[in-house]
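Full entry
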Amino acid sequence: MVQEYRNRISYTFQPFGQRPTAARQRRALPGKICELPHNLELSPVGSKIGNEERVITLARNDCVEIRGARQNNLKGIDVDLPLGKLTVITGPSGSGKSSLAFQTIYAEGQRRYVETFSPYMRQFLDRMDKPRVDDIRGIPPAIAIEQSNPVKTSRSTVGTMTEINDYLKLLWPRIAHAFCPSCGREIRPETAQSIAEQILRDCLGKNILITFWVAVPPKTEPREFFDFLQQQGYLRVWIDNKILRVDDPNPKTKRLGARVQVVQDRIAMTGENRTRLVEAIETALRFGKGRVTVIPIEENIERRSSQQSAISNQQSAIQELPFSTSWHCAWCDLDIRPPTVGLFTFNNPLGACPDCRGFGRTIAIDLNKAIPDRSLSIKQGVVRVFRGAEFGESQKDLLRACRREDIDINVPFEELPKADQDFVIEGERRSGEYTDEDYENDRWYGVRGFFRWLESKTYKMHVRVLLSRYRAYVTCPKCNGGRYQTEALNYKIRGAHVASRAVSGGSPETLLTLPEFQALSISDARDLLRTIEGSPDDKTAQMLRDEICARLNYLCDVGVGYLTLDRSTRTLSGGEVQRVNLTTCLGASLANTLFVMDEPSIGLHPRDVSQLVRVMHNLRDKGNTLLVVEHEEQIIRAADNLIDLGPGRGEHGGDLVWNGPLDEFISPGLGLGSAGASPALARVSRASGKGFGEAPKTAGEGARAPQSLTRDYLTGDKSISVPKSRRTSVSSIKILGARQHNLKNIDVDLPLGVFTCVTGVSGSGKSTLIHDVLYRNLLRAKGQSSDQESGACKSITGTHRISDVVMVNQSLLARTPRSTPILYLGLFDQVRELFAAQPEAMAQGLTAGAFSFNSGNGRCERCSGTGYEKIEMQFLSNLYVRCAECEGKRFQPHVLKVQLQGKSIHDVLELTISEAIEFFAQLGEQKIGETPSPQSSPWQGEADAKRQVRVDSYIRISDGLKVLDEVGLGYLRLGQPLNTLSGGESQRLKLVGHLSDVSGTRNLFIFDEPTTGLHFDDVAILLQLFQRLVDRGHSVVVIEHNLEVIKSADWIVDLGPEAGDAGGEVVATGTPEQIVKVEDSHTGKFLAHVLGSARGSRAVFGGPPKSTTRVYADDDHEFALRAAEEPLGQWPNVARQRHALPDPQKNGAIHIRGAREHNLKNIDLKIPREQLVVITGLSGSGKSTVAFDILFAEGQRRFLDSMSPYARQFVEQLEKPDVDLVSGLPPTVAIEQRVTRGGGKSTVATVTEVY
C-alpha cells in the first residue's frame, strides 16, 4: 500500500522531465500508513491518479441526513432523504409533514444557499427561520412550490407569473403585422427596393408615374407655385387624375389644394428599367418625406379627350398605389405608433389602457347595489338610495316622471317593459350629461344621472362614503377588459384558425391581437404559436417562440391547459398556483436541486393526475430530488420512497412511522418500523453511536413502531363505506341560462337538504358555476355585497328557501398568534371568570381582565403576553426566543400563583382539548357532588348560588369543547395560536359554530375542495361533519375531485366533458349509481370502480397486491395504477423499477453547447459534476468567461428564476450568456477575488458576519 502511495505521489509532484527521487518520495509520504493525505481525495481531471480507484470517506453522499428534528411537534426524529428520487411524505393532518418538509428541510436548504449571496441581496429575499434540528448534512439548494396563493393584486396574471408575457412583449414586435385601424389594410415600413419589387410584380408591362406630395403654402397662386416647381426641375404634376405641365402659360387649374402630387418620373415597366425605377423612388421618397405614390397610366394619357378623361377618372383613382417608409397608412394618411416593447405590456404606461391603467377593470356604479331587489315596485322604493329622507326628493321626481310617461308604479320593477326600466335608469335623455336647465325644467335625470350629480359633490366626506356603498369593479368599457391601449391592437399575428371564445368564424386563417391571443386557452395558444413562421434570418424571434412554446407545453403537461394567459392570478386555486409555479422550475432546467412540493394534485381530476406524475418523474430524471407532501393515492403509489409520519395528530404525532419503499410498507405480515421510527428507537439509535454516513436500518427493524393509518387505508384494513341509502330532496335552487366564462347557457338544479357534489375535469366550469354564478348571485339576492361581479345567468330561483349562504374555505382564521381555539369559541371569558372567582385571586384583587394575555395588567410586560421575543437580525432571518422574564408562560408570577384545581392559567392553556374536556367535566362533577349548605342564612344561600354558577360554567366549557373533539381536533391545545393551524384544521374549526347552532336556520354551505391537505382518515371525519350538517336541515354543495367524497354524496352534478372551451356543459346529474351509467362522464368511469370495490369485500383504497387497478389511463381507456406505466392487473413494483432510477452520482455532467460569450469560439464542453475541475489557459484565453460568465451566471439566474418576481427586481442578476445550451447545471456559488477594497469600517468580522 505504501508503494502504491509512492507511485501516486511521484507521478503527481515530479517536475517535468525528471524522475522521482527517494527524498522527494519520503517527504510526500503521510504520517501514518492508513491515513490518506487530503490532496489525494480530489484528483485532477485527466491525471493518472484520476483513473485509479480512490479512497472513499465515510460520509454518505446519496442522501440528505436529518438528525434530531424537533420543529413544532416533531419529536427529535432522524430521517435519511435519498437524493435523486421522488419521496412522498404522508400522515394524518397535524402529524408534522409540513414541519419536516418545509420548516425543516426546505428552510435549511434555502437558507444555506441564500447565505452565499451578498448581505444587500439577501434583504430582499424570503428569509426563513432556522429550524430546530441538531444537524442536517448533504442538503442541496432547495426550492419550495407551495399551494398558497399570496398574490392579491389584479396586475398579476398567469402570463406575468410564468414570465410568458415578458417573452411575448419581445416577440410581438418581431412577428406581428400592423393593420390600419381605419381601412384594415396591412401597414409595413417600405424601402425603395421593396416598393420597386412590388411595382415590378403588379405593374409589369404598364406605364407608371412616380409622384410625391408637396405642400402648397396658403394663398399661393397656381402660376407662382408652378414657377417654383419649374425652377426645381419638375415639369409635370398630377391633379384631378390628369397630368398637367407646369410650363403651360395658361394653367387650367384656377385653385390648388393644400398639397399637390409632383411627378418624379414616368417609366415604362420593363426589367431593363429597374435601376431607373429605384432611383426615381429614392428621390421621390427623399422629397416626399418618406411617402410616394405610384400611378399606372395609359400610354397616351396626355392626349386623351376630356370625355375619355372623365370616364376613366374613377378607375384611375382606384389604381393609385401609395407607399410609406414609416408606420403610416398611406391609403388613409394615418400614423400608428411603432411597435416597441413597452407598447405590448399592460404594466407599462406606454401600453396600458389609460382608463383602467392596465387593470382591465374600473370602479363604477353597480346597478345591482342601487336596485338590489327588483321584485319591489317603484312606489315601494325599488331604488335603494331614494328611500331615505336625505334623497327622498329624488323619489318624488321619479314618481312625477312616471306619471308623465304612464309607467305603472305599482308593478314589480322586474316585470316592467324594458323601455320603462331604461327610462328609470338612464333618464329622459338616455345619454349625455344633464345640465342645470334639465333639473330646473323637471326633466327626469335617471338613476345614473343622480349618481353623476353625486360624484360632483365628492368633496364632501359623507358623499364619498355613500358612493362607496354603491360602487363595484366592472369591466373597463374602453379596452373591454383587455388591459392594453388601442394602439397595441393595431398589431396582429396570422395563424391557423383555432376554436376559441376569443376567435369567431371558421376561416382557415385568423388574425389575433395580443389581448385576443392571451384570451386563448393555453393549449390553443400553444397550437397556434407552433404554426407561426417567423423570418428565417431572425434567430431571436425563433428563440423567443421556442421558449414560449416550451413554457406553454409545460403548463399543458401539469394539467392547466384550460387556463388563459390573461387569467388573474388572484382567482387561481392553491393547486393551480402550485402547478403554474412548477412550470417555472421545469423551464429553469436545474439539476442537483431539492424541490419541495405541497400537494401538487390539488384541483386535478383523477384523469389528469397521471400526467402530473410524468412531469415530476421528468424533473427527477434530470438529477433532482423531489420531496412531496401528498395524500393522493396515485402519487403515493408512484413514489420511489415513502416517509410516513404519525401515528396520530398534534401531540400524538411527530414520530417517524416509516421511511422506505412503498411495496415493503404495504406488504402483509411485515413489521413496521425504520431508523428513527419512534422516540425509543431514536434513542437506541443515537445511544448505539449511529452517526452521519451510516446506512439506515432496513425496513422491519424496530418493530415497536406504532401502527400507521396510511398503511391501514392503502391495504384496505380501513375504508370509507358507501352510504346505505341516498337522501331525496323535495326542493331545489334552479340556475337558468348560466353563461359565465366557458359555461354554455346551462340550466342546473341544485337540490336542497341533501349533500350535493359538483364534479368534472379541471377547467370544466365548476368554480365558475358555484363561485361566480351561484354564490355571488345568492349574496346579491340576500342584499349582501361582493367584491366581484356576479356571474351571468338568466335567473336563479328558490333563494327564499335558504336563510343564508356560507362559503367555507381553508383560509387562516387569524394572522396573529394572539388568537387561540378557546378564544375563537368564546369560552375563554368563562375560564377567566372562574380564575377570578378563586379566593387567592379575590384576595389580591385580581379581576377576570388580569387573566387575559391580550390585554390587562396581568400579562407579562416584557413580551406583552406572547411568550416570546423577536430579535431583528437585519439581513439574516429574525430570531424568536423564549421570553426571559415569564419563560414563555405569558403571565406575571402573581397571576400564575392563582390555581384552579392545582392548575394555573398557563397550565390550563397548555391542555389539549381532550384533556380540557375531562378536566372541566371532573370539576363540574365534584361541585355537583358537594353537599349543599342549609339555607339558614342569606350568606350561605349566596355561596350556594355562586357554586351553582361555577358548576354551570364548568359544564358549558366542557360541552363547548366537545364539539371540537367530535370533529377530530381534540389534539389541539387551548392556547395554540390559530395562525399555526393547517388549512383542514381551520376549515373544521369554522364549522364548529354552525354545528352548535340550535336556532333552526337552514343555510347553504359551499365548499371548494375541502379535502385539500386531508389524510384518508381526516376525509372520513369530514364526511361525518357533512352528514351532521345535512341532518340538521342544512344544504351542502361541494366542489370535489376526491372519489371518496363523491361516492358519499346524495346527488352529483357532473360538468364537462372536457376542460376550457370543450367543457361548460352538464354531462350528467343524479346519484353516484346513475352517474356511473353515463358513458361520456370521466368521473363516472372512476366512480364505477370505486363503487364496485366498495360493494364487494375489497377495500375502497385498494388491498393486498392483487389485480385491482385505480387510475384511468388516456392511452387505452383502461384503469392503471401508476400513470399508465404498469401492465394491467399488476400493482406497481417499486423494487422492479428501481433499477431504472437515475443515480445522482452517475448522472453527473454539465454540458455546454455553442459557447460564444466574449472570445469563446462556439465551443462545446463537458464538465463532470462532483469533482474538482481546474480550468487553465493563458491570460485572456476565456477561463473566467467559462467559469463566471457562463456557469456561475446561468446557475444563479436559473435558481433566482424560481423566486418571486418582486424579490428578483432588487437582485443584481447577471446577463444571460451567449450560449446555445447549458444542461445539467446545479445552482452555483461564486467565490471571486475582491477587485475593490471595503470601506474603512469593513473588517473580517463584518464581511463574514461574525460581528
Observations:
- The longest helix spans residues 938-966.
- The chain has a mean pLDDT of 79.
- The first strand starts at residue 63 and ends at 69.
